């Protein structure tokens, strides 16, 4: 079987992770990886069987043998690369968020749709064994009609000061995963958002016009209600979910390195939860790239669509407006704000 040739743009932490996962798939060949600091990754690329390393991502776009691109570069570069890849007829896997500007996201995705290429948004949590199982059980009606969704999502430590201004803010950078999982779990788009936010971890967030702690209330179009609580510093990775319905309740607890517990006269001890997203969602990252490649091989729909990426951004912008104006915000208000027609 002829292998699908892949180009990866961006060899930071996530780009390298995708490359290392893709090389496990026998139907894939990573032909080229691009990074502005190309010389720094040549040894790593050679160790991972990637023959071509370039500082110019256009080398990937111009290569007719490359059938699909992984866009793992900074967010402010995504739109240009998406448009170029679509025009070149290359399938696209793009890390979240698609962009910081909702109207540009819409324009790029309209071009993708017209081009006919496949586009998958990088929401890896959908492929987590716990998250996907909850969604399956909700879809099968095991808890009846969904009434309340609760998501706890807290990072072990805040990002570096240099990262914060370019991150897009908590909602676009961090909570966007929770917005996507909320839609995934409930099976409905969000209608209204209300946010209470604060700076309780580090004043540097306020200096950057951001927050580090939030409680977010969601109202879904199907009538369900949701609550997300976020913190940039929990000192451990806290990822829990509860879905309550008319016939029962589903919960997800944190994943641990082991389930062993030590009982002594001084107390009961166990491992801390898996420390960060690379450990907690390692298997999910493998599954998401495999799902994208399978969609190309079998010409089937991707499991996380361009619309999924857009909807999560839409909620994130509504959350930002709610925080700024200290009121509930209808998601449709954001469309007006960004001059987007339905």
TrEMBL record:
Residues 133-250 form the GFO/IDH/MocA-like oxidoreductase domain. Residues 4-123 form the Gfo/Idh/MocA-like oxidoreductase N-terminal domain. One of its GO terms (molecular function) is oxidoreductase activity. This is Inositol 2-dehydrogenase. Keywords: Oxidoreductase. Belongs to the Gfo/Idh/MocA family. Gene3D superfamilies: Dihydrodipicolinate Reductase, domain 2, NAD(P)-binding Rossmann-like Domain. It comes from Paenibacillus elgii. Transmembrane segments: none annotated.
